[in-house]
Amino acid sequence: MGKCRINSLVPNCGYNTEGIEAIRLLDFDDFGGFKFDFDGLYDSCYVSEVLQRGDSSYVDIAAPDSAKYSSTLNNGTYTHTVETFIGDLSASLASSLHLATKRRYIVLFRTKAGRYFVFGYEAGATVTYVNQTAEAVGSLVTISANSIYPLFEKVPVTPGRYITVVPTRIILEAPDTVERFVLTSSSPWQLISGPTRYITLDTTQGGAGSFQITVTGGRIGQGYFTFRNETGQTATIYIANISGRPWILEDGTWNMLGFWYDNGIWNF
Question: Is 1.20.120.350 the CATH number for 163-267?
């Protein structure tokens, strides 16, 4: 954790949480990890991306003015807790809450000051609830997680319409090679073209957010995979599956296996 020395405990100028404005849950099975700011480690406590897996999406939770976050530290373990109230008492809500208690989640919330925070990194957060009809009819919902890490702040959502992939080029060099790339989109997206007969992607569609997509090879081949989101933006990644074939010079020189590499493209 670097030098493990603090420089200041003074809050940033003008910083005031003023309560919680929005709460979102991501199923822990769909969580692909955190990417920390500047590709650093957790000691920055600043997350640039929450990576998703599969055809996943966040679930929005009601966040009235009474919604709040709290944290305690005991013997090196943090307990992170978000409490909120859902003003409903019905069969459909009871069913959803009951299912929620059986799962674990990554918890993302936004304060009224516009800052984003996230917890549940190691094993996810659990959901409990209490129904009531006294002061108000509804359900008091508590979402909590134990962690060796403090609360992480997350980079605010980038405004605008966009879809990007990082990196934009992958080479599968061995039959058992598994590679990954990150797709980030401002709206739901899907794969619209690509040589899927040669290369397999574990995810070909998703909602808004950042997705970690796993790439595996099948037959020898290569090509461009193009993704498009609901607002019409596209992103492309070039993937080649050479499955154990030796690298050759990048000047177009033929090798004994009958294919060559020139200007970043494998030619079979």
Answer: no
